[in-house]
Amino acid sequence: MNEKNTERRHLFIKIAVTLLCFGLLAGLVVVEYISRTFNTYRVVRETEVILEEGCKTAKLANNLLIYNKDGIRCMDAKGKTIWDITYQIQEPCVSVDGGTVAVAGYGDHLIYVMDESGRIGEIDTNLPIRNLCVAEAGYVGAVLDDNEVYWIYIYDVSGEEITRARTSMEQSGYPMAIELSPNGKLLGVSYLYLDAGTVQNNVAFYNLGEVGQNYTDQYMSGYIYQEIVPELHYMNESTAMAISNGRLMVYSGSEKPTESKGILLNNTVQAVYWGDENVVLIYNGAADEGRYLMRVYDLTGTLVLEKGFDLEYTDIQSQNGVVTIYNSDEVLVVTLDGRERYKGSLGGSIRKMVSTSTKYKYLILFENTFKVIELE
Predict the structure, then answer these.
(1) Which of these, 8, 87, 250, 327, has the minimum number of CB atoms within 10 Å of its CB?
(2) What are the DSSP calls for 269-292, one per residue?
(3) What does the alpha-carbon distance between residue 298 and residue 318 come to, in Å, rounded to a whole number?
(4) Is the pTM of this model over 0.85?
């Protein structure tokens, strides 16, 4: 019996030591992956692309949008054109939320709505469009110009009117920014107005669902600021953020949004970039910070990264805990703990980089080619 117990103990010790070694090895691999710096990249796929004159780009989920005054097309991660829709728009205005996009012309009256499968709706507003937004669920908001009166209309993709509101500078102000939650249930509007000759801003929220039917004009809450608030964005169904030159505001609530946090910013914001779960604010840097200073705030308004950099950027993306800063010639990839993962060229003149759901994997549009590139 004792011999058997001894054998069992020895067996258990061997198993424990083996598991410990595997655990340590796995831990070392994870640590190495977390802390490593990429020195090069791998071209996973490459496709020749013909770019139309004056084309612009945007991200649609994990796809790339290319559009101009004559039409819009969507390319997937294989470089394949999923759909290509033609129109005639002199000044295209594009709004994207997740996998849904709305396109309209400034001053026109038609809105085209697409998702990853193609066209899902076309809306005739009958009045000139001044601004628009789209919800991933397929709802569209539009600011329409009716001489000195402005209307805010909400439509479904079939063009059916969900609700509308009348506004003017004398009434509630000019709707300089509108935003729908991804499910289309909540509407946020940033109104600019004058009060005794002083410019003020009202950020108001409306509930377009059943709860909102119990409130006058579906109005749920509003907050007045002594400054212009040009940036308003829904991060998810229950979190919205607004930004002025001197303040960051976080609003929480899936039915009745309330201001959960207000942060005074001690510098003038130069640029704002919305990430998947954070917002990136760019300032001019001080002498010891670099040309620019980047601050990243999470969904609660907590500062998670502050980092200076010198790259003269054209665009910034934040996804999967990684901030990608780039211009036509150079790329800087930084994690939210401040580590620089990659800095250098990607072998061509970059028109657009699109972060994908796979970390460190990008869709990149160059002058004449479309590439899928993975850092390594």
Answers:
(1) 8
(2) --EEEE-SSEEEEEEE--TTT-SE
(3) 11
(4) yes
